[in-house]
Amino acid sequence: MITHFRATLLLLLAACSIGAADQPRISIFDPSKIRRDPFAPLNAKELEEKKVVVVAPVGAVEEDFSKSIRITGVSRDRLGIAVINGRAFAEGESFVLRGQHREVRVTVRKVSISGAELDCGGVLFVATISVEES
User: Fold this and answer.
1) Buried (b) or exposed (e) across 69-90, using 16+ Cβ within 10 A?
2) Does pLDDT of 82 surpass 70?
């Protein structure tokens, strides 16, 4: 029974490979869809930072970072991680804080047990952990 199964399987595989050789190979690559020079070097870190956008809460005053940035959790292990406005960021990572009228580049400088030290467009800001009251 098992030998018949093996023989049948081998015969099917051979038939599939013979049938595939008869078909011409067609590429699905379309060079007209490329919008950039494929040989230009990429700065992966810059691309990653551009796409991370954190939206400030509605009604927050953009000049007052304490109302725009909310830290809900931190982790201090080998790498300090802070949860800022619902997204996790490690020490050294950057993101864009988008308000109603302007955008500010924010870099996480240092994460401590009580909060995080942030560089908000050249202004040093220390944010503490927010505790929700129920």
Assistant:
1) bbbeebeeeeebbbbbbeeebe
2) yes
Give the pLDDT band (50/70/90) at residue 111: very high
Owner of token pair 């023989």: 7
State the average pLDDT over residues 66-91.
90
Q: Are 98 and 87 in contact (CB under 8 A)?
A: no
The whole-model pTM stands at: 0.58
